[in-house]
Amino acid sequence: MMGDSLWISHGATGAVLRRRSFITVPLFALLLSAVRVSAQLIGSLDCHKTCVCASNIVSCSKMNLTNVPGDLPQYTAVLDLSFNAITRLRAEWTPVKLSRLQSLLLSNNGLNFLSSEAFVHVTKLQYLDLSSNRLHQLDEFIFEPLEHLEVLLLYNNCISQIDRSAFSGLNSLQKLYLSHNQISRFPLELVKERSRLKTLRLLDVSSNRIKVLPLHELQALPAWIKNGLYFHNNSPPCSCELYDVVAHWHLKELSSATDFKRNHTCVLPGPQKEKMAVLDLNKVHLNCSEVRITDEEAYLEQFLVLNCDTRQKDMLKSWVLPGNIPLPSANKTAVMRSDGNLQIGPLRAEDSGVYTCFATSDSFNETIYLTVVVFNSTMNGGLENLKTAYTTLVGCLVSIVMVLVYLYLTPCRCACCPGNGLEKNEPQDSLHSSTVSISQAHEETGQERVEGGGFPYRHVGFLEIKDQLEQNGRLNPIGEEDEEWQGDNRERRRSDAESVSSACSDTPMVV
Questions:
Q1: Is the peptide bond prior to 236 cis by the omega test (within 30 degrees of 0)?
Q2: Among 302, 306, 481, which Cα is nearest to 376's?
Q3: What is the C-alpha to C-alpha distance for residues 92 and 120, in angstroms, rounded to an integer?
Q4: Average of pLDDT values for 50-58?
Q5: Cα–Cα distance between 461 and 412 in angstroms, integer?
Q6: Exposure string (b/e) for 40-59, b if CB count within 10 Å is 16 or more?
Q7: Rounded to an integer, what distance in angstroms lies between the CA atom of residue 98 and that of residue 421?
Q8: Which pairs with CB-CB distance under 8 Å and at least 24 residues apart come from 275-283?
């Protein structure tokens, strides 16, 4: 009995163990598969199934990853995570520092969050692709650790807000793509404040919602910046200033204008908000004047700086003077400056002509022609002529005023003026009686001599008899007048008659 019971117990135990073993095996298989799935979801690197590892390149594209694979080798130089489902890039996406990582591709992931510390462990990045995601804003100093970054792709997102310090620290950035977003403000500080992005040579803000363009600032930029500045497919209002900018860039054959000639559009004024090509404004609307590349104009004795405005930066430049004369090294009137521009002056009339700048590089050559016209006058020549005319006019006005003062404001010496002691109705003080009516003057003279026995008051309006005799060539010696008055009346009348005829007659007197 006992043996049978022991056999039964052993048999039961074996059955239980066998049953447990059958249960354990499927559980272990399920656990292993769960670990594999979790490893794929959590991001454990699998160079055989999840990713393709080729030397220092790790490509995990189109694997439906929701997180960045962990345990990335430190020698990784290129990491491709595009076309996955990584919606958030946290600070701990790589716990170890990837000091050799140069290219990181995260496009087409539905990415909508970037941690402010997302790039602290990949400071040697040179190429970062965040295009075709769902980013809405760029926070302050988010790219600051990437001091070696050269290319940043942010196109085809939903970016509408960019902090002014978002791109701070990108000292090596050369190309920035921000097209196909919802940006409404032109980021002028990226190209104007050269202390921030000194190496930037391509900025693409096309296909956004920019309605106001800083046209004067854009026109003043160097050609090598304008050559890589793309702002087509926006909605600025149509104006002749906008036409001048686009047409001038097209004449200079800048890529941003020639490559997208028909895409530079503007909105016409009116309720319909109709769009048209900017370069057609002078033909149909606004009647804008034709744009030409202006020549340099200057005057004698001026100094002029000719700018060799090339479409590429840091090119080797050389100048040729008018008449195809190479620039001599000992020339004093034409000197090439350290920035490649040519300074000429003091200008002479013979300095007019076409100056040629030859710019060369390893892959590009460019020739720029500058026409200089020197006017045969000094800068202030017109001003001096204006001063002379003004001085002449003032002199004429002063002369007229002086004549008027002389005629109307001189002191009155007539007896009729107040304060001279005689009334106007006294016959002996009448101007008419002293000069005009000669017979009346003689009668009054005789009457005065008879009544008064002399001349108690002698005042003549213009000339006395003695002065009249002297002015007509008849010398009146001293005392002659008194002697005549002492003679008989016949002599006196003859003397008076002679004096009258000599003073008032136009007949020449023969002595």
A1: no
A2: 302
A3: 10
A4: 91
A5: 11
A6: beebebbeeebbebeeeebb
A7: 120
A8: 275/235, 276/238, 278/238, 278/242, 278/243, 278/246, 278/247, 279/243, 279/246, 279/247, 279/250, 281/238, 281/240, 281/242, 281/243, 282/243, 282/247
d(CA 45, CA 72): 7
| CA 85 – CA 216 distance, rounded (Å) | 44
The DSSP 8-state label assigned to residue 70 in this structure reads B
- pLDDT tens by residue, 1-37: 444 443 444 444 444 445 444 444 344 343 334 334 3
Please report the beta strands in 303-447, taking only residues with DSSP state E, as ranges in sequence order: 304-306, 316-321, 325-326, 334-336, 342-344, 353-360, 365-378
Can you tell me the distance from the alpha carbon of 252 to that of 309, in angstroms, rounded to the nearest whole number?
Answer: 10
Separation CA 432–CA 439 (nearest Å): 11
For residue 98, give the nearest of 65, 136, 146 by alpha carbon. Answer: 146
Kindly state the DSSP code that residue 361 receives in the 8-state scheme. -
Q: If you search the block for the tokens 């130089």, which residue do you land on?
A: 77
Per DSSP, helices labelled H in 409-463 are: 431, 438-452
Name the region of 186 (left: φ>0; alpha: ψ -120 to 50; beta: rest): beta
Q: What's the mean per-residue pLDDT of the chain?
A: 76
**Among 70, 38, 29, which residue's Cα sits nearest to residue 51?**
70
**Do you know the residue count of the chain?**
511
Burial of 172 per CB tally in 10 Å (0-12, 13-18, 19+): middle
Q: Which residues, 6+ apart, have CB-to-CB distance to 146 below 8 Å?
A: 119, 122, 123, 125, 128, 169, 170
Distance CA 60, CA 43 (A): 10
Q: Across-strand partners of 320? A: 326, 356
What is the pTM (predicted TM-score) of this model? 0.65
